[in-house]
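Entry for the shared binder. Reason: the reviewer on the internal report wants the predicted structure included alongside the sequence.
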Amino acid sequence: MSPEIRSHSLSLKSISKRYGSLAAVDDISIDIKRGSFVTLLGPSGSGKSTVLGMIAGLVQPSAGKIYLDDRDITDFSPERRDFGLVFQGYALFPQMTVEENVWFPLRVRGIRRGAAREAINSILDLIQMKHLAQRLPGELSGGQQQRVALARALVFNPNLLLLDEPLSALDKRLRADLQWELSALHRRLGATFVNVTHDQEEAMSMSDDLVILRDGKVEQSGSPQQLYAKPESRFVAGFLGDANFIHGEVSGTEADRFRYTVKGRSFLQAGSPMPKDGEGRVLVALRPEKISIGTEPSSRPNSIEGRISDLKFYGASYYLQVATDVLGRVMVKAAADLADFAPQVDAQVWLGWSPDASVVVRAD
């Protein structure tokens, strides 16, 4: 046997899950490409764990269909789906060695230990744990236990690997290390991974695609880069990172651009759909790192003056809060090696940004 697992696509078609009058998942459709790493992301109560439970066969949908490639598996038991599952708490058997834990899913499939030896050694080699094969889980670190849980989920060549908050029990530094390892493992295997997390940085760093859930519905889906740069709603813009939100009144159109005003100050917007009839109110999201800051008026098309009201230093960058008369408080992220000046509270500054640095979003 080999640790190389099969690669499949997965489709959820108009899936719902109701508990009485409560719709935990409300008529969603998701297509997961063969060999991709997809993360279901959302706050608590968004429905992401329920969706994963329905994919795994642990939760029966109230409506809709689930397809593995073109095969309807909606009514299949978890065993018939043959998916690997890694839980938040690892769920290792404490009385079994690493080797015995990894052997377990093969044993329940009737494969004797001798016949399973090659597959066990191969997957332990893959996760760099072969030298600890005779250790008990209690003798391992959290990161090592996570690797064993991954090995156990992969050793039987599952159709898909499902990950339920797999790194949430680890400290920040170890989580960051294992994000690299999990991404590398996915690339080596070429398998289809479906991950659930509420951690935005974890989701964006590991995933090919994100599905953002909110109140049981899909808010937006796409690549991490697409969703971060082009969020469609205020919720997505705010959930995937810091953003400044600007409420303005459309004051005119210029080819593929338009102008909006805030308290009599005019700003230029590009790279977003033109407002209907060239009028109305707009909500614009502007990422803090897209804003330049200096002690002289900015040469960029959009500029505004203000004073630094607070700042935090994070080694490679500063996070600054700038008080302005027109836009209120504006958050700015600036590289720590600023050539122009050293930021200080109460310093007068100028902010600037290009017309396509911001994006028009839907109000929630």
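Summary line for the report: The mean pLDDT is 91.
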